[in-house]
Write a structure and sequence with these properties.
By secondary structure, this protein is an alpha/beta fold. It is built from ten helices and twelve strands. It is globular.
């Protein structure tokens, strides 16, 4: 009866699995700070997709580690880069059951680890970054991405990407904007996995202040006005109030990212016998859904899908 009248329901189809595609990898390489995850070569991604489809999850979110980096991150738009290669492999191997999402950012591709072009003075040049992001998004769409997801937090990037896609007759490619992305301390394991920690300073100049909630709604409104089809709040757990406020204000599909630090923290506690991993993971995901998320990006996606099926 409790299941019958439950107000919040988790379904595998609302879960998205992050995948790290490494141009330098010849076989899966385990990520110590993300138990159960690995950097993989592009040819391995269809195998992950097979598992995802069998589990019934909604899609994959691809991040790339290039063979070489430069100070402008121009490798993000390389058609032979890790993400386009993986997308083409997925296009040939996986059917429409799985949504293919490509993260759009420069941090993995720059020598300095920042999400945009850096000036001589060490500041981020917002406007110089926009064409690079738009070019990368177009490359991913042409390779087979159903959704491009700009995570850089540059002002105006959604409009630049939408214009680029529409001009290339790729108007059916959706944009999932990381609209409320906070300058969080919970990104550590991801930066290790994607080799994208800033070499100097931090990202507080362009990511959001954790103390601000109303600002998030303004950022979301701006991205939707520029043409975003969906928006995201990141991280999820520490910002459930932002998710709930955004759900009350906007009707567009809302995604929330349960980030690497949230995942790693639960694993670390479970490894010490302090919590039950299955119950804690499902409880955390339920809380994100209860706050209003339609889509949840989580490193627990495959395991959670199985756990949901066992209920």
């Amino acid at each position: 009866m409790r299941d019958l009248v439950a107000e919040t329901r988790l379904d595998p189809s609302m879960l998205i699995l992050p995948v790290f595609v490494d141009a330098n990898a010849t076989a899966p390489t385990e990520i110590a700070s993300l138990p159960g995850h690995a950097r993989v070569p592009a040819r391995e991604v269809p195998r992950i997709a097979e598992r995802a489809i069998a589990a019934g999850i909604g899609g994959l979110l691809l991040f790339g580690l290039p063979g070489e980096k430069d100070d402008r991150g121009e490798g993000a738009a390389d058609p032979l880069g890790p993400v386009p290669m993986a997308l083409r492999a997925l296009r040939d191997a996986a059917g429409p059951e799985l949504v293919r999402i490509a993260d759009v950012c420069l941090c993995e591709y720059t020598t300095h680890g920042h999400c945009g072009v850096v000036t001589i003075e060490g500041a981020i040049d917002n406007d110089a970054t926009l064409p690079l992001l738009a070019s990368a998004a177009r490359t991913y769409a042409e390779a087979g991405a159903d959704v491009v997801a700009p995570s850089d937090m540059m002002d105006g990037r959604v409009a630049a990407i939408r214009q680029e896609l529409d001009g290339a007759n790729l108007s059916e490619t959706a944009i999932l904007a990381y609209s409320a992305k906070y300058a969080s301390s919970f990104y550590g394991p991801f930066r290790d996995a994607a080799d994208c920690a800033p070499r100097f300073g931090d990202r507080a100049a362009y990511q959001m202040d954790p103390r601000n909630g109303r600002e998030a709604l303004a950022e979301i409104a701006a991205d939707l006005a520029e043409g975003a089809d969906m928006f995201m709040v990141k991280p999820a757990g520490p910002y459930l109030d932002v998710i709930a406020a955004a759900r009350a204000r906007f009707d567009a599909p809302l995604a929330a990212y349960q980030v690497s630090g949230e995942y790693a923290a639960l694993h670390a506690a479970a490894a010490r016998g302090w919590i039950d991993l299955r119950r804690a993971a499902l409880e955390s995901l339920t809380g994100i859904a209860r706050a209003g998320a339609d889509v949840i990006v989580t490193y627990f996606a495959l395991e959670a899908a199985a756990w949901i099926g066992e209920r």
